[in-house]
Amino acid sequence: MESRHVHLLLLSYMFCVLILTRAADNIRRDEPLRDGETIVSSGGNFELGFFSPTPTSSKRYLGIWFNKVSVQTVVWVANRDTPLNDKNGMLNFTTQGNLTLVNGSGSVVWSSNTTRGGVQNPIAQLLDSGNLVVREDASENSNYVWQSFDYPGDTALPGVKIGIDLKTGFRRFLWSWKSRNDPSNGQYSFIFDPNGFPQPFLMNGSIQRFRGGAWNGQSFANSPSLLPSPSYKYIFASDPDQVYFTYELIDTSAIARVVMQLHGFLELSTWNNLTQNWDNFGSAPADNCDIYSQCNAYGLCNSGNSPICSCLDKFEPKDPTEWVRGNWSGGCVRKTPVLNCQKEVKFLKYSGIKLPDTRFSWYGRGVTLNSCEELCLRNCSCVAYAKLDTTGTNEDCLLWFDELMDIREFGSSGQDIYIKLDSSETEISTGNSSKEILKKLRISLPLAALSLLSVLCLILYIRHTKNKKKKEEENQNQQRFSEGSSEMLYINKSKNDDLDLPLFDFATILEATNNLSLSNKLGEGGFGPVYKGALKDGQEIAVKRLSRYSAQGTDEFKNEVIFIAKLQHRNLVKLLGCCIQAEEKMLVYEYMPNNSLDWFLFGWFSLLSTLNTFGYL
């Protein structure tokens, strides 16, 4: 009797082992995965199995999805173009070591097509990164025979490389679904173009829809959606073997994805456990000026202007009549043509812009800015030059040899470019006239400095007189906050400051507004979006995030905030503080649910704009 119990215990143990084996993160030879079964990565982040895109669809696909997300979100599909018609599909290895998906009749509908031989005991393993890999069973290293990260669909997870192998020509890119119930290749793709200086493009078929821009050492900073973020970072690599970019999460516990949506937008989103929804961190194209070459050759796009297109300084519309009508397809031309090398030429500096399309450019490392200018000056086909790296750690040079396309105005977030012009177009030139300019500067600069000093002294005297008369009134208008808040820093009062100004750190703003998610967004005005949030003590706030492309400096911003604080009145919404960090400038108000949204979007800033422009209300 006792022996029988022992046998039953052993059988139960073996049964449990078999269950655990099927629930593991891998598939081995002679252990096929059938429809209805799944494997889960070791950390529980991802799941592999069979699915239908919609509840009404009878088509079956093999795919990978997030395991910790309540809404099934597929990140990779094996048989995008060849769906199964029933639930008789099976995933298994062939005798040659290929991972194959077969239908009920045994016909292969998808295969890993592994070309490397010599795999004796293949194993397919789902990693916690979402990467499905095929390797030798005895090997624990990353020398994979095949991996799904090399064949992304519409989604790039952290670590997926979008780019090209320059030796083999193998490309990795994103391709949108055709529809919500059809994961086959759709209309839009996100690729990496290696021509000239490499840059990413969002394509509508064969037409460029959006250009991410050239890597500047930190990011692809030519789009509001691709600027650096405290939540993630970009990685770019370019060498003789390969060109690619990827991204990594700073908070590795976050769940994130980049998706080429079927409606033509590239979106970066993270999962919000509180709302059980995806929060959109960025989308490209972000505005009309993100549409590729909106203003055509030598046209400058600014989404804050009306119309949004204008010609660069020293340039004019090629077809003025059509330009006035809003047809900018003709672009702009130089007012004074540069005829090869027959005339004396020089360069004019344009600042705060998105660098033009770099497909027809040359890039050189270890070249100083002065040497870059000389190279462009000596080449009659060169039309412009620029320093690409903005970190200050590398000397580099970028030369353009065709019309400059896809330029937009970025303000302080933009870069400098030097465009070749006829010498008659500007007083600042290069070459033999530089000595004459220096002589003029030696005379004019001291006179200008003396005049400026006199004006500054007069301004300081007038300001001192006004401050002395209004000191008592200003002190009565100052509103101070309670001490000891763990969420605030303060700009302390000194003889140069007019009042205590609460300064929120950026991390507090992110936490209060759920990482500035769209679900917290109240709206958007001319100066930037407004987000609703809540501090740790429960106080509701409204955060006004100023545009990154404003040309306003930090000191000017601080002065404006102090000025607003002085104007506070019991019938007006209360300014609680501000946030200044790197490119970020934000105003934090008391949230007033009974006040209209127009007040947050336009109220204070219309008032401030009037004061700044005219000096009075």
Automatic annotation (TrEMBL):
Gene Ontology molecular functions: ATP binding; protein serine/threonine kinase activity
Alphabetical list of Gene3D superfamilies matching this protein: Bulb-type lectin domain, Hepatocyte Growth Factor, Phosphorylase Kinase, domain 1
Keywords, sorted A to Z: ATP-binding, Disulfide bond, Glycoprotein, Kinase, Membrane, Nucleotide-binding, Serine/threonine-protein kinase, Signal, Transferase, Transmembrane, Transmembrane helix
Reactions that this protein is recorded to catalyse: L-seryl-[protein] + ATP = O-phospho-L-seryl-[protein] + ADP + H(+); L-threonyl-[protein] + ATP = O-phospho-L-threonyl-[protein] + ADP + H(+)
Pfam families: B_lectin, PAN_2, PK_Tyr_Ser-Thr, S_locus_glycop
Superkingdom of the source species: Eukaryota
Enzyme class: transferase
Domain Protein kinase: 516-617
Residues of the Bulb-type lectin domain: 24-147
Annotated TM spans: 443-462
PROSITE patterns in the record: BULB_LECTIN (PS50927), PAN (PS50948), PROTEIN_KINASE_DOM (PS50011)
Protein name, entry field: non-specific serine/threonine protein kinase
